[in-house]
Amino acid sequence: MHETSVTSTIGIIGVAGGLAEHIATEAAARGHEVTAFVDDPERWSAPVTAVRRAPRDLTRPDLAEFDVLINAYQVPAGRERDHLSVNRHLLLLLARSPIRLITVGDPGPLFADASRTSIHWQQSVARGPRRKAGRTMERVFFLYKINRDVLWTYLAPPIELVGDGERTGHYRAGGDVLLTDEQGRSRISKADYAVAMVDEVEAGAHPRRMFTVAA
Predict the structure, then answer these.
(1) What count of other Cβ atoms lies within 10 Å of the Cβ of residue 108?
(2) Which residues of the chain have pLDDT under 70?
(3) Which end of the chain is less congested by CB atoms within 10 angstroms, N or C?
């Protein structure tokens, strides 16, 4: 476990059973104060307070107490465009606020390789929900890139987020290029992605930047 001498008050937007639970569990284990805004508090299993609230129903008073807001919201297949409205709403709420916004991104907007000549979703993702998500999240990232009123970070995962993978506490960090291993796989456990997310909460190493991680 990473140790930190500074405790942050963190809000997390997510869904029960999703990646947000891993992040909330990691943050709470490190001593941070965490509140989750979720769709179904009765099904929420992470050891933090859970409040039933849809992302677009959040108001400035809801967020006033937080140092950091983590957007780990997941949308159902076929509703990928909801990511645009959710992120627009959050950027508006936090405009000219001291609250940092860290969003769980998508590998789609990453460059496919170090040549930086093609975008991952355009080159490698076939038709279907994953391609729609990649295209939408590239537009979301553009909203962040042009924003100067919010202190944001966009943490793009690798292609595979392994739900039952172990927490090793180790990961590789990159910039705007998809990370792969020697076998060409791009993956990380959800537990280790959560480690990387909370490391970013604590270090604030990527202000107004996209970065990615992988095992």
Answers:
(1) 26
(2) 1-5, 124-129
(3) N
Q: Which residue has the tokens 């537990």?
A: 191
Output the pLDDT for position 35: 98
pTM metric for this prediction? 0.92
Q: Is the separation of the CB atoms in 28 and 46 below 8 Å? A: yes
Residue 41 counted as domain residue: yes
What integer pLDDT is reported at residue 144 of this predicted model? 96
Residue 70: strand, helix, or coil: strand
3-state secondary structure of 30: coil
Using the 8-state DSSP alphabet, how is residue 98 labeled? S
Three-state secondary structure call for residue 148: coil
> Does 196 fall in a domain?
yes
* Closest-CA residue to 31 (of 150, 205, 163, 201): 201
CATH code of the domain covering residue 138: 3.40.50.720
pLDDT digit string (tens) for 85-99? 999 999 999 999 999
Q: Dump pLDDT digits (tens) for 3-20.
A: 555 899 999 999 999 999
Q: Going along 24-92, which residue ranges are E strands?
A: 33-38, 49-52, 68-71
Instruction: Give the CA distances from residue 120 to residues 57, 79, 109, 131, 169, in Å, rounded to whole numbers and listed in that order.
Output: 32, 21, 6, 10, 27
Q: Is residue 2 part of a domain?
A: no
Domain count, the chain: 1
On whether residue 70 sits in a domain, the answer given is yes
Domain that holds residue 109: 9-214
